[in-house]
């Protein structure tokens, strides 16, 4: 009897991969973000990426980040989370989870809370204190939304999609655990210095 395949994507890896893939539809030259919403039954009900509103030309509107606000992308771009929520194919996403490639900003946090999503799984967060992310965290925590950093695989795992041949390969390292230094050894070494 043949065995099932052992090298496959976990649920979280699968949903985050879809968010990552969606980010590649973005035309933003600086930041490509993707989002994927699942309902309580682990079914995908919404996908989005950052882009301009429907009918607004990406050739006529600016993509810059600095200078006159009207000439930056900020007043015009819809974030991935917003698009995923607005594009959802199911009215009720209460208790759902949103997978995002970047930590949601405060504006998206409002939409996430109001749509009934109860968990955020994010892959990356900009370092340091950024007001939009600090305010987002404040809102999400206050509303009881669980914020979880995507737990990457213990060993290297990557997907390669070849659009020329229409094939995909999942490459994963055989190394199952990353060895960590023994903290007790460091303490004994440090104690000599203190003494
Ligand atoms: Zn946002």
UniProtKB/TrEMBL annotation:
PANTHER family given in the database record: DEOXYCYTIDYLATE DEAMINASE, DEOXYCYTIDYLATE DEAMINASE-RELATED
GO cellular component: cytoplasm
Alphabetized GO MF terms: dCMP deaminase activity; zinc ion binding
Organism: Oikopleura dioica (Tunicate)
Residue span of region Disordered: 172-195
Domain of life of the native organism: Eukaryota
Keywords: Hydrolase, Metal-binding, Nucleotide biosynthesis, Zinc
Segments traversing the membrane: none
Annotated InterPro entries: APOBEC/CMP_deaminase_Zn-bd, CMP_dCMP_dom, Cytidine_deaminase-like, dCMP_deaminase-rel, Deoxycytidylate_deaminase_dom
Gene3D superfamilies, per the entry: Cytidine Deaminase, domain 2
CMP/dCMP-type deaminase domain location: 10-147
Cofactors (names): Zn(2+)
Listed GO biological process terms: nucleotide biosynthetic process
General function of this protein: Catalyzes the deamination of dCMP to dUMP, providing the nucleoside monophosphate substrate for the thymidylate synthase/TYMS. Also, part of a nucleotide salvage pathway that eliminates epigenetically modified 5-hydroxymethyl-dCMP (hmdCMP) in a two-step process entailing deamination to cytotoxic 5-hydroxymethyl-dUMP (hmdUMP), followed by its hydrolysis into 5-hydroxymethyluracil (hmU) and 2-deoxy-D-ribose 5-phosphate (deoxyribosephosphate). Catalyzes the first step in that pathway, the deamination of 5-hydroxymethyl-dCMP (hmdCMP).
Catalytic activity line of the entry: dCMP + H2O + H(+) = dUMP + NH4(+); 5-hydroxymethyl-dCMP + H2O + H(+) = 5-hydroxymethyl-dUMP + NH4(+)
Lineage of producing organism: Eukaryota, Metazoa, Chordata, Tunicata, Appendicularia
Family: Belongs to the cytidine and deoxycytidylate deaminase family.
Protein name: Deoxycytidylate deaminase
